[in-house]
Design a protein that fits this description.
The protein is mostly helical. The protein has a single domain, classed as Arc Repressor Mutant, subunit A (Orthogonal Bundle). It has four helices and no strands. α1 (6-18) crosses α3, α1 (6-18) packs across α4 (66-99) and α2 packs across α3. The termini are far apart.
Length: 101
């Protein structure tokens, strides 16, 4: 079983997300990784387990306001999007330097 560095996994997920028409299979083939491996990395980046259908909280905490729960979920998503943006920027710089002669 191969072990990939976390940075490689993050770049692979960012690459998949940066190509709107691409399939997991095509990106995995380009990177030389198994399709299911890339799919698991994408799920992990989304904060989901295999087989999970939603990343939203299933139950509202006792005494908690639904608005507070929604706000917490929105803040979490903002953090995730900021992290994805940073990864995409790093990936773009990496691939830009690799294509220079």
């Amino acid at each position: 079983m191969k072990h990939y560095p976390a940075e490689f996994k993050a770049v692979a997920v960012a690459l998949y997300r940066s190509r709107p028409g691409a399939t997991i299979k095509s990106v995995a083939g380009d990177l030389g990784v198994n399709t299911e491996t890339l799919r698991n990395w994408i799920r992990a980046a989304d904060g989901r387990r295999a087989g999970a259908h939603s990343s939203l909280p299933a139950v509202v905490p006792a005494g908690g306001d639904a608005v507070e729960v929604e706000l917490a979920a929105a803040r979490k998503r903002i953090r995730e999007l900021a992290e994805e943006r940073d990864i995409l920027r790093k990936a773009a710089r990496y691939f830009a330097t690799e294509t220079r002669w």
